[in-house]
Amino acid sequence: MRQNEGKAYIGSMNRAQQAFFEKNNKLTTNIKELELGTKSEMDDYVYKIVLQSNPQSVMNIGRDKRRGMKSYVGLVYVVKVEGEDITIAELCESKKYLTQLPKMPKLAEDASKSEDIKCPSGFESLYPGRKKR
Predict the structure, then answer these.
(1) Where is average pLDDT lowest: 84-88, 89-93, 128-132?
(2) Position 133 pLDDT exceeds 50
(3) Which of 5, 17, 29, 112 has CB atoms 3.0–4.6 Å from 49's, for a disulfide?
(4) Cα first-last separation, the chain
(5) CA separation (Å) from 8 to 3, 14, 26?
(6) Segments of the chain assigned E as strands
(7) Dist CA 38 CA 77 (whole Å)
(8) Separation between Cα atoms, residue 47 and residue 6, nearest integer Å
């Protein structure tokens, strides 16, 4: 199914953002810097990275190009745990065709695990069995 492209690529972008942060102590908006070997536009999806500064985070977006397919967002946040900056991530799927870009959800100040991340409005977690606080 074509939606697998979007889901898989956004998941890969999340992991690549986390690895990029580990190596460079920052997140990136440049898809090429993630070294995934893929273009920002494919047959079924257009990919984009939106950087947020407070808190430091990115939203990796896979927007479908055809009505009837779902879009995907990957959320990666930098959080401080025991004095050290680490990344936490979530993968979300749109409930319907995406007509506008979603807003980055706010993260609670005490967030320290991926379970603490909420998907944007109109999206649901692809990890529904994960325990939420």
Answers:
(1) 128-132
(2) no
(3) 29
(4) 33
(5) 9, 10, 23
(6) 45-53, 56-64, 72-81, 84-94, 123-125
(7) 23
(8) 9
